[in-house]
Amino acid sequence: MEYSAEIAELDPLLSRRLHQALTAGKDEIFQTVTDPSMEVLHAALKNPLIDDNHLLVLLKRRDLSGELLSSIYKLSLAAESHELKIAMAHNPATPAHVTLALLPHLYLFELVDICYLPDATPDLKVAAERAIIQRLSVTPLGNKITLVRRGTSALVEALIKEGDQRMMEACLANPHLKEAAIFQFLNGPNATPDGISAVARHPRWKGRINLQLAILKNPKTPSVWYTLFLPHLGVGDLKGVIASKRITQAQKKIVQEELRRRGL
Question: Which DSSP string do the residues of 33-99 spell out, in sequence order?
Answer without folding.
Answer: TT-S-HHHHHHHHT-TT--HHHHHHHHT-S---HHHHHHHHTSHHHHH-HHHHHHHHH-TTS-HHHH
